[in-house]
Amino acid sequence: MTETYADLIAAEDVLLFVNAAVTSTGQREFRSQAYQQRLSLDFLHEYVRVNYRTVYAASLALDINDHNAARVVEQLLRTAGEASGEQRRTEGRLIAARLARLPPQRVYRLFRALRAAKVGNRRTRAILRDWLAARPDLGHDAVKYRAGLKTAARHFHLPLTTAAGTGTATPAATPAAGELGDFLFKPGVRPRYEHPLLDAYRRAHYEQGAVYELPFTVAEGFAAKHGVAREAFVERIAPRMTRLERLRTQREAGADGAGAAVRTDLSVMPLTRLALYALSLTTEERVRRRAELTGALRSAARRAAGPYAGTWGRVAAVLDDSYSASGSGVKRRRPLAVALGGHFLLEALAAPGAYGAWWTSGRTDPLLVRPYGPTPLGMRVIDALEYAPERLVVVSDGWDNAPPGLAGEVLRVWRTRLDRERRTTVVHLNPVYNADGFDVRRLAASVPTAGIRDAEDLPALVEIAQFAEGRTGLAELQAYLDRRIESFLRTYERGGAT
Asked: What is this structure's pTM?
């Protein structure tokens, strides 16, 4: 009995960490400051790494956010001496696979963190060398991530020749031997560079036309130096902009926010990013572009649902659009965007015509939701249960306050008195990390709760939430993690992780 109880406690500890690693980015939330978030994350990373190192490394195969993934990699590399030989081999494969999925700017930031921690052992150098070797074009990195690449080359003694940058690069995109070193450490020594991007950067200092051959974020600085008008610059640089850069600048291009020069195809945007964009528009813009925005959100939701589309049967959703869903200054409207994205994703997952949604505000038009008012979760849960769903999904920060605690009591009575056969599956997904409690806030002990950051992860998080009910131990959780690791590594080693 003691061993079983210990397993349950271990599973709860691991799920605490997973919830934190999914939701928290160490930034200010609606009810907690940034320093509180950071202190809470510091404790959890240290605690789980020391006590459950194997599971700590396995979290890299889960849907944890990029901030915590980079932090897990850093901690594993800094404490390699604490791992056994088998653990180091598994960690190395997981780290390589996760680094391939991380945005390059975050990996270069990781390089700087490892340098500050004075980590430079052979294992770390090999992992970072392999990551650099798989970069499509180190010339592009030298221009866009100049400081990060310099740090990597200098501190970790990584090669900057044709041996690096050959992972997926074409020969024409690979800098000639010695060019990268001269570009980074001896600027001005060469009259010209063979690599077109390196030479464009050199010419951009005095030639305005070369500015438009550079990546958008680099070109912005040169355009300001040359005194180019913002509107003219954005119009000419548009072909070199990424989808996200187009989305950020789309509203600058014209009075209606839809200038043709920077118009991006919303139908290919990720679901949560698209929900954030829709919520950033005024009510008038959302009404005017209703068909475009709704079509794009439903298209993104169908992509996220994948093979699970239409397989969840009768689904009810309780979605939080109270004032706390406004988030914070650094995570503006993030909780509301997760709820909005979750609405369209659950609609796609439900059987045709078998989906109902209840917003805490009582609104019925999802495209026009805004963060306002209290959080009467209990009343909306009652409404949703009357729909007699097979699945009830609650997306909320869990601060039930109108009246306080009603949602938890409703769900307790429902589970213990009215639905003992568990005909309805209830899951609570929380997009906000509660730093004081080292976990996401829960509605009731009988309701499985999981943290969520991106609406796209909803199906996987509903699956992992089953372990939060307290009836499964570490063995079942470890088996689930093993399956996720196998799938994660298989995808990476087949070339799909990037």
From this structure: 0.88
